[in-house]
Structure prediction request, 266 residues.
Amino acid sequence: MNYETFFAMLWQDYIDIAPQAQKIHDLFTSLGEAVINDHVAFRTFSDCPIDLEHLQPVILAMGYKLQEHYHFEQKKLVARSYSHPDPAAPRIFVSELMRHLLSEKSQRILESVVSQIDPGAVDGPEVFARGLLWQPITAADYDTLSEESEYAAWLTSLGLRVNHFTVSLNHLKSITDMQQVIDLLQQHQFPINQAGGAIKGVPADLLVQSSTMADQTEMTFSCGQTRTVPTCFYEFAMRYKNAGGELFDGFIASNADKIFESTHRT
Ligand code: OOG
Ligand code: NI
Prediction:
């Protein structure tokens, strides 16, 4: 699968559960802007048939190169980023929850989830839009997970799928800074992720980011009870050049740490 087909598949899956994304996309195009995607992100579980080790070869097979490793100690996550030699190809960020660092109770819930994943689940790029590869959990288990790790609750309820696309501010014409984007979104009533401030990072870091708070949907769990759960969000990124004149191509862990909170329950 070429990357164009891959991102078209992801976009469809994404707007189905995050209607805000199409609305925000249309808002930018109505202002005469071309919406170029800087990157997407995925989440997964450690030590299972869809862990980073299993997913990485699929990304590499689309022509991507491994760029960097990251560690988020408090959130109990590791991550890797990938970039493509074709500058038109969006970057990819994949994080993984280190299940063994969670409480025994959460570990037990997640063990019963990952034990249902087909050992051959990673059969090509389509796996990144497959969603649940297990039966839904109970609402009580969802509550237990979300108390300890919002990430664990999100991943267990939504499965393997893209969690955000990112508008590249570098490609916008009339909107030239992040505060303008935030003002525009707020005028249109889109909630902004305020963790650590609405704007994450400073130009000296070479990457400045903001994001919306995820859309929410009512989900029915295996016990028949429902919960309002966060789905997916939209991100905005401005990249800067380093001293050598090269545009920064990576990610900034301290920004990412706050972007993860775009799927926290509000
Ligand atoms: C990914 C958070 C990190 C970024 O651009 O730093 C990120 C996630 O929420 O899964 O997207
Ligand atoms: Ni991002």
Observations:
- The first strand starts at residue 39 and ends at 45.
- Helices lie at 3-17, 19-30, 52-61, 104-114, 139-148, 150-158, 178-187, 253-259.
- Residues 41, 43, 93, 95, 163, 209, 235, 251, 255-256, 259-260 surround 2-oxoadipic acid (ligand 1) (CB under 6 Å).
